[in-house]
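Replying to the earlier thread about multi-chain prediction with a worked example.

Input:
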Amino acid sequence: MSQSAAVTNDLPEVIEEASFLRDTMRGFRKNRMAMVGLVFVCLLVFLAIFAPIISPHDPYRVALDEQLLPASTTYWLGTDNFGRDVLTRILYGARISLVVGTVPSLISLLIGTFMGILSGYMGGKTDFVIMRLADTMIAFPSLLLAMVVMYTLGANLFNIFIALALVGWAGVARVVRSQTLALKEKEFIEAARANGTSRVRIMFSHIFPNVTPTLIVLFSLSIPEAIMWESSLSFLGVGVQPPEASWGLLVAKGKEYLFQAPLVAIMPGVAILMTVLAFNFIGDGLRDALDPSMKD
Amino acid sequence: MNEIVISARNLTKHYRVGGGTLAGQGKVVRAVDGVTLDIRERETFALVGESGCGKTTLGRIMLRLQEPSGGQISYRGQDITALDDAGMRALRKKLQIVFQDPYASLNPRMRIEDILAEPLRTHGYGSAEVIRDRCAELLDMVGLRHTYLRNYPHQFSGGQRQRIGIARALANKPDFVVCDESVSALDVSIQAQVLNLLSDLQDELKLTYFFITHDLSVVRQFADRVGVMFLGRLVEVGRTEDIFAGPLHPYTMLLISAVPRADPRQRTRERPLMTGEIPSPMNLPPGCRFHTRCPFAKDICRTHDPDLQDMGQGRAVACHFPLNS
Amino acid sequence: MANPSGNVLSVRELRTEFRGGRGNVRVLDDISFDVGRGRIVGLVGESGSGKSMTALSLMGLVPKPQGQVSAKSINLDGIELASISPDGLRQIRGRDMAMVFQEPMTSLNPVRKVWEQVGEPLRIHQGLGRRAIRDRVLEMFELVGIPEPKARLDAYPHQLSGGLRQRAMIAMGLICEPKLLIADEPTTALDVTTQAQILRLMQELRDRVGTSIIMITHDLGIIAEMCDEVNVMYAGQIVEQANVFDLFENPSHPYTRGLLASIPKSTESRIARRMPSIPGMVPNLARLPSGCRFRPRCTDAMAICQTREPAVTDLEKDHRARCWLHARQDAISQGEPL
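Result:
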């Protein structure tokens, strides 16, 4: 074809391969607060994993002669009412709080995405049923719902996952559904239909990759939320049970000695605050980096 | 004469808008309202009309991307309105579409390779290797380099993306291709390149085009036959030269005369203009749909809706008083 | 530029740059043109040519601080805009110089009544009361041919058709009787028959009210239909400037020739389906080719086009082109700018 040849002549031989990941990383790195958040979270993960090696004391050792000591060179943040080192308890608490932050978020994201895409793309009765179910979940006061689950199933870590996932999926499903509805109208989805592509394939290989940026952001924002939930549940006594340590539990137990040894309650609270902030910064940074309109 | 590829019989598409349970029935939009049409092998049939006339909907229901409310479509004698999902999916190899918006029609998260391979995989074109070769071949065919297979859509210009969209439509060697405003979003110089490509491909691959557009100058250059659509109906059909030389329907005449000519010595200041606004497809006037805007309307036009009548020589018009006759 | 005093607008050496992560990009370079009183002047080009950016630069609407506009002179009927303060420019915008945009739906606020929006410039610039504004808007609606103007005053934008919305936008542009109206693709979003109505309206307004208009479009048909003078833009520069008749009868820049050739001729019957087209595509402004910006797509390119940017050459009265084909021979050999 003469005409095609004419066009090819001035085309570059190869166009540099673009990578979605690389572009996103580039955008993310420009955001200083997000990078600070990322560094903090990495540090935290490191400390949590190596807590047994790093921490100066045994988290469960009770020393009644060393109750509620103030900060010192031996006990950097002092001791609690059982004479346990507060710093050590916080480091061990990070393990539970981080797991509780990520695992239920992942579960609710998984369920929510599946339900949201199904609901948005199939429409009709499927949509109606899924959305009414989600409405029902959202209509319940979430804390109450989670507490009911914990009371019925018993307070342990696995049940916390179930409770939090149950509370979380509906919100994800709604966001994903509305995105799916918008994507469904796009011409590339119509093109896939015109090619005879099956509905399942359209949902998984066309719609899903296009909602992933949203999912990543939702995930990073739901981690602090889950940490807060766990803290609330533990604070109310239906979450993690002593002598295990989670940040929420530490605050709950420490509050009784707030005036004698303020660090016992305040320091885990500070840990929660900083972690939640760090994840929020990361989430904001990701949202900007993943938005193609923000790229040059 | 060539064999008929697609034949539409009395196609309709009605939507109900508004009107939940409280608002009563709501209103019915007659987007497509009784269209009968035959399209022959290897011809380019252009469907022209203004926004809201139903041309895009007609294109979609001819491929059953939307379900018609009534009527029948046959592809080479086979009634495709009666096909089930699986049967229709298999037939999609032969019936394809090139979209308007080169930005919205390619999935931004897929590599060109995957975009082109998807229809091939769906219809079991062959092994992974055969498919990869075919993708490279398709890119060459539309005037792009096959080294671009690993790139993403956002790395290409509008014209190049439209070429990729064309390549995707042609992947399974279709027979009938709907081009829905496929060059409207492109710059003039790029538009000409893409039109040339489409016409080369038509000769090479024996394609039949159903070319939907609002741009009459493109139609004149590109189409063999033209159908003019107004508010859900075909008001005039005929060979391109005949229609431009002597439009029979007053709407066609006004449409042609409204196109600005690229010649300052032929300004339209003296040409007739259509006055006022086109009625809404929700609220059609009685009689001929065009009578409210027609400079030649008579009493009968206000009461009787004219049918599309055969005028001989492949010409048809829906008007009580065709022009030039 | 026969009669400088007869010009409503006179632009000299307008340059607009955008600061980006990878260095500055000059989106407009050496833009100079005039708009005579009561004239319709066209800016025509493809997407990315800088035609809309020219309008935004004149109006002072280029986003800051990334965008930087500089000019030797932008003279709007005696007022020098090149050195005016942002406040001064705000005074002028809407009063002496107004703009009509492409998309009449998105340029109107959906939750406010049409008359309030159309009368907004009067409130800002003349401080009129509601009653007076309403009356004036009604007059304007009559002027721009909106049927049943009284009833339309209290309509919301979505209750008007595309054509009526664009008429309302034109009424808004003209309400302070500006010296210059800049219309940026005012009919691109409209149907042909509506487009013809709006174009005719603008011609009539010019004839009756004497409005000077800059018409920005990609459509050479509209240029031929409407304009007195034409500026053809390519990659941020004006490459050819001429009277509309000269331009269509005697196009001098290879890009103009290519553009004219690639318009489907609606007046000729179809002989061959192959249309002449310009090969290649518009260059990325951040990575312009050396020498002439059009050179990679030009069929007449010479050796000099590769190395040096062509200067503007006067071909005849009020017809100039930025192309080496037309440069004086001695200038080419000496390599001096004209």
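The two ends of chain B are 27 Å apart (CA to CA).

Feel free to reuse this layout for your own posts.
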